[in-house]
Design goal:
alpha/beta; seven-stranded parallel β-sheet; 9 helices
Amino acid sequence: MKNVDLHIHTTYSDGNNTPNEIVEFAIKNGIDTIGFSDHSYTAFDQSYCIKKADISAYKNEIIKLKKKYKDKINILLGIEQDYYSVEDTSDYEFVIGSVHYIKVNGEFLPVDESKDILISAVDKYFSGNIYALIEEYYNTVSDVVNKTNANIIGHIDLISKFNENNDLFDENDERYVKAYKKACDSLIKYNKLFEINTGAISRGYRSTAYPSSQIYKYLKSIGARFILSSDSHSKDTLCYQFDVYKNKI
């Protein structure tokens, strides 16, 4: 199986390496295809995404690298389009559609920034009921392809990032199961690829990839197709643990 990794972040958003550094590392390590997919611009939170003024530079640099290294590696220009981003994606070769926030009373609440922020949101907006927040998250996820026109559905159960040992909620709870199944059932009709995303492992948040084994099994049972993604934020995590999960696709 060829080494292909289409979920890669650079210094244009919240990654640690430049596109050129990533390309050179990928070539050196025998990776066949890489896709750059920095975070799309979100006006309400500019701490992690491509700056509005840098969008053209991002596109131009990747295009130049495609040409420069075309005989050594296949490079694709992509974007990780957040559900609430309003940026045009027509110039990209692929789009990863992801939900990083839920919107409540006009406020954008990040679901993957920290455990404390998530707990605070539950207390402030959901009367301490985390399953109510989870239902809102999966309702948003269910619309991500329609909203972003994604080719790839990013880390479908990102809400579980800080729930490694059921620290925040029970992933077997009836409300949780019903919520994720509803989202899966809504998304399967688009016939898009679902990520098996190892990024939270490489960054020390989880010991297993997204989605969880139970969500993976459910998606598999309804005919989902998958792609391995490293969600890499540094060059040395390209294709991270793909050898462990390659039998899943």
